[in-house]
């Protein structure tokens, strides 16, 4: 096939695939979340099963499922409690906002710059209420899909035992079957390692941040710790937002700059130290995505699937890269997506290939 025709077909396929992902997002996103929850539960269960021969896989799986369910219920309770507390404290926060705008007006020479004037001009209260309503709607959407996601997860576990037989039927040829199993194992290993490392890193940053927020007396510190934990799964942008949102809230709460500066330093220090020292060592090159691709994938998946797309942008892009690397026609795309130009090799193969013979 002519290279021009092949390139045009690839472009058209990309456009059609992207359009399908966007149009069918309400159907696909719950199933995508179910797959990743299934991987998390299964990896957690296999990890507990490997700790001791006395722990059967069934018991480990039950503990893993109960842990995930308890975590989801805890998230819902924390969000509901925080919403009630913010509603009660709204007059105090509004008064503090008025003081902040008055101070800014004095410094900028605009004496009429107050929260009331800005509210009359731009409708800030209505926009805040609309934002809160949108947030509540998003939470309601996740909760409403919870049963559907749970059903998907249950059926994934029910069908898990039949996967090897289906692989044999799909790939009768031994070599092709071995290659497919290798690709599937690498995809699963990369995703499990990414999710596992991100969970550990998020927990570390959340604990440090919660201690700092509690120490300075920030309101709803448990809620902000939850926000930090979730945002750290979103590449690049999530880390900045995890620092900015609690600090902005601290500006509204505190009258003095001292607790705000202490909190800012603690949150930034935790993000910088953990993100630049511990995380790279734990993550290694399991993702093998260039920094530019991470940013672009975050933008693309976020535009297609919203928050779920941003949350899953990195692992979804890794899956696409590994699959594209298996075909000669699309191998060059996988090379561009990868960080080291070797998208079809796992870390062990790279170490063997790149090893320098000793003198």
Keywords:
359 residues, 0% strand, globular, mainly alpha, 3 domains
Verbal overview:
83% of the residues lie in helices and 0% in strands. The protein is an all-alpha fold. The chain folds into three domains: 24-161, no CATH class; 172-283; 287-344, no CATH class. Helix 2 (25-51) crosses helix 6, helix 8 packs antiparallel against helix 9 (221-231) and helix 8 (174-216) packs antiparallel against helix 12. The two termini are 47 Å apart.
- Beta-strand residue fraction: under 5%
Extended strand count: 0
How far apart are the first and last residues' alpha carbons, in Å?
47 Å
Mean pLDDT: 79
SSE topology string: HHHHHHHHHHHHHH
Shape estimate: globular
Helix-strand makeup class: mainly alpha
Rg estimate, integer Å: 24 Å
How would a crystallographer describe the biggest sheet? none
When the domains are counted, the total is 3
Low-pLDDT residue intervals, each spanning 5 or more residues: none
What is the helix fraction of residues, given as a range?
over 70%
Quick gist of this model?
The protein has 14 helices and no strands. By secondary structure, it is an all-alpha fold. The chain starts with a helix and ends in a 6-residue tail after the last helix.
């Amino acid at each position: 096939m002519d290279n021009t025709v092949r390139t045009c077909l690839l472009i058209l396929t990309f456009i059609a695939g992207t359009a399908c992902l966007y149009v069918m997002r309400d159907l696909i996103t719950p199933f995508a979340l179910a797959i990743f929850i299934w991987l998390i539960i299964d990896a957690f269960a296999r990890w507990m099963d490997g700790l001791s021969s006395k722990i059967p896989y069934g018991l480990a799986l039950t503990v893993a499922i109960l842990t995930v369910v308890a975590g989801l219920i805890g998230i819902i309770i924390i969000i509901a409690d925080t919403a009630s507390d913010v509603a009660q404290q709204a007059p105090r926060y509004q008064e503090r906002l008025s003081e902040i705008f008055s101070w800014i007006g004095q410094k900028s020479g605009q004496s009429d710059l107050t929260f009331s004037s800005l509210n009359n001009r731009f409708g800030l209260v209505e926009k805040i209420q609309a934002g809160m309503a949108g947030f509540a709607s998003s939470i309601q959407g996740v909760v409403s899909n919870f049963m559907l996601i749970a059903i998907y997860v249950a059926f994934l576990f029910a069908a898990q035992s039949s996967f090897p037989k289906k692989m044999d039927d799909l790939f009768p040829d031994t070599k092709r079957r071995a290659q497919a199993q290798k690709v599937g194992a690498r995809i699963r290993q990369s995703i499990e390692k990414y999710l596992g490392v991100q969970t550990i890193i998020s927990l570390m940053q959340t604990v440090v941040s919660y201690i700092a927020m509690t120490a300075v007396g920030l309101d709803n510190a448990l809620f902000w710790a939850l926000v930090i934990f979730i945002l750290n799964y979103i590449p690049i942008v999530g880390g900045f937002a995890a620092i900015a949102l609690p600090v902005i809230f601290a500006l509204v709460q505190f009258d003095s700059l001292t607790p705000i500066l202490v909190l800012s330093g603690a949150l930034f220090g935790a993000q910088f130290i953990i993100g630049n020292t511990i995380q790279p060592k734990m993550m290694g090159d399991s993702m093998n995505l260039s920094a530019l691709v991470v940013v672009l994938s975050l933008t693309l998946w976020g535009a297609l699937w919203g928050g779920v797309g941003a949350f899953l942008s990195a692992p979804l892009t890794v899956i696409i890269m590994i699959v594209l690397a298996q075909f000669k026609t699309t191998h060059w795309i996988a090379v561009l997506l990868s960080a080291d130009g070797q998208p079809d090799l796992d870390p062990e193969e790279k170490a063997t290939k790149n090893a320098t013979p000793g003198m």
